[in-house]
Give the backbone structure.
Amino acid sequence: MELAELIIAGDRRAIARGISLVESQAPAARELVAALYPHAGRAHIVGITGAPGVGKSTLVNALALDYRRRGARVGIVAVDPSSPFSGGAILGDRIRMRDLAGDPGVFVRSMASRGNLGGLARATVDAVTVLDAAGFETILVETVGAGQAEVEIAQAAHTVAVVQVPGMGDDIQAIKAGLLEIADVLVVNKGDQDGADQAVAVLEAMLSLAPPRVGPSGDAWTPPVLKAIATQGAGIAPLAQAIAEHAAYLERSGQGQQNDQARAARELHQAVREALWERFLAQAGSELAAAVQRVRDRQIDPYTAAEQLLRDAEP
Ligand SMILES: Nc1nc2c(ncn2[C@@H]2O[C@H](COP(=O)(O)OP(=O)(O)OP(=O)(O)O)[C@@H](O)[C@H]2O)c(=O)[nH]1
Ligand SMILES: [Mg+2]
């Protein structure tokens, strides 16, 4: 059987090979994604994002156990843009996720950046496609922070949970504005530490200042702020519930369809940009390097140089 067929049939070794392939971004990865794409699109994709050490992996682990208790198959992708090598953080994730080891209804995979964040975002989206096509109903994607790659990854999720911890107190930089914007659900984890209720209050106050999020049907979504103690499994069922409510909101409000449309446009536009650039590079060759020198020496401005190169590269 072909790799794609094996993945669709849920073969674990094939899934692992498929993810390695998309991670390598080798030419064969495109063929695999092409074969899997029509079979994906059924999973609910949940992004779990937040600063290093806030407890994302512990939360993901607890959430996955909760989903498993209710019989759903769960795929997990942990993205670690900070570590270009397979470093300690990833090993840590693997160890913490040991509760799930050996469960055939769970598939856990860590992805490292190898120094190319754009490539990481794409590889992660493709890895999610592999898990989606393999029939995992819920896919949890753990990402750190709010850099460009994380925002891209978050945009690929249907529901984004942003994780914070107490102790941000009066500190106004409590949550980066960008993170608040992408949050569909907010979690104050480490609820066993001082200041958790205050952190919840601060986030709720910030949310009350944000414009209401109204879907096409006029139905609004207000991101809930939940408290959790991931290490004790506390607050996990309400988090799963909030994620399910957001999924239901996406469906009934038409917002989900609108997001899907925007996502499809973004992914296609990005693919066109990349394909055009690659084609241009293949044709421009040494002329591109020569043009860079002329721009550097101010013999020509970048815009005119670009026009000339594009004209010359025309097929
Ligand atoms: N006190 C307390 N500690 C927690 C809680 N949740 C997680 N931790 C601890 O916080 C530390 C970091 O947890 P992780 O789950 O690895 O956090 P993370 O956000 O995935 O970390 P990175 O992936 O490295 O960004 C670990 O020592 C956890 O045991 C909690 O609810 N309360
Ligand atoms: Mg982690």
